[in-house]
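Incident log, support desk, overnight shift.

02:14 A customer reports that sequence design results differ from what the structure should imply. Their input is reproduced verbatim below. On-call engineer (initials T.W.) acknowledged and began investigating.
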């Protein structure tokens, strides 16, 4: 682990461990998933691992501002922690956050303050977050999306956002999965090619 990832781990632990232990359990495993991407990320592995550690710090009550955790977390990193701009951008836009920002009416604010991250790096963070359940368990992306929908309920803003972003999130996980193992079947499909249906999202 290099300096940036180590700093990010310490920062996330300080912010999340005591106040949000379940979120901390999720975060630890998202970071563990990020470490498995080192063979395909090369020199960006440390940055993505740092983003994995920090992606959910905006849930902490002490950081609350807008109530939208990607933006609150990124603002804290920029204004208080003085983190690198690219790291703030990865946190601000993690897991298709722009779509939820639009649902909340703050999409323009998010883009004005934080430009979207490079697509390959954004895909890597999506892969780590969207294959890790709320208690840190590893999940296929379809189960992760269904779990979020079930947890928030069909009428919640988060569920609307996840339904809109599900194709983008699944495609990102597919791209990273196939980089790790070009022979792997795409998420959402059986090896023989039959598509699975995310029933909760339709």
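02:41 Re-run completed on a clean worker. Output:
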């Amino acid at each position: 682990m290099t300096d940036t990832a180590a700093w990010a781990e310490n920062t996330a632990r300080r912010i999340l461990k005591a106040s949000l232990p379940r979120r901390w359990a999720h975060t630890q495993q998202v970071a563990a998933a990020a470490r498995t991407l080192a063979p395909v990320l090369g020199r960006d592995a440390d940055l993505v691992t740092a983003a994995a550690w920090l992606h959910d710090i905006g849930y902490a009550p002490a950081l609350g501002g807008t109530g939208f955790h990607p933006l609150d977390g990124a603002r804290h990193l920029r204004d208080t922690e003085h983190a690198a701009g690219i790291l703030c951008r990865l946190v601000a836009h993690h897991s298709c956050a722009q779509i939820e920002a639009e649902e909340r009416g703050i999409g323009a604010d998010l883009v004005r303050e934080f430009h979207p991250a490079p697509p390959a790096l954004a895909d890597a963070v999506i892969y780590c977050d969207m294959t890790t359940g709320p208690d840190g368990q590893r999940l296929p992306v379809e189960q992760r999306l269904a779990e979020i929908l079930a947890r928030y309920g069909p009428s919640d803003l988060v569920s609307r956002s996840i339904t809109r972003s599900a194709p983008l999130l699944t495609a990102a996980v597919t791209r990273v999965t196939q980089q790790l193992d070009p022979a792997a079947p795409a998420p959402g499909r059986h090896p023989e090619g039959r598509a699975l249906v995310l029933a909760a999202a339709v």
